[in-house]
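Write out the 3D structure for:
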Amino acid sequence: MLQSNRQTQPTSHKRPAVNDEFMKQIIAELKHELLDAQGVALGLVTTAIARQLDATRLTQDLEQCIAAAEKLGRLSPTGKLLAIRALSAAEAESLYQSREKH
């Protein structure tokens, strides 16, 4: 058998350099989109729950829970944002229910 004097070298594919600022921007945008999606989902769940219950009472309970969590220091900025999204959904449903009664 004839052998070649050439050695087979793996082909290397160089990746383009990634700009750190660009990556930071992409990560920040993804975090924002994820947080927004979670807030929307929580708002939808809260609306569905409020429709099954007294939305005004749910709103009051959420307000009390948020205030208590803040007072105890157990509410991160992200948690507060999501809790406020839920509170907003409950308030909107409460307003809708009160208008339906009139």
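The mean pLDDT is 87.
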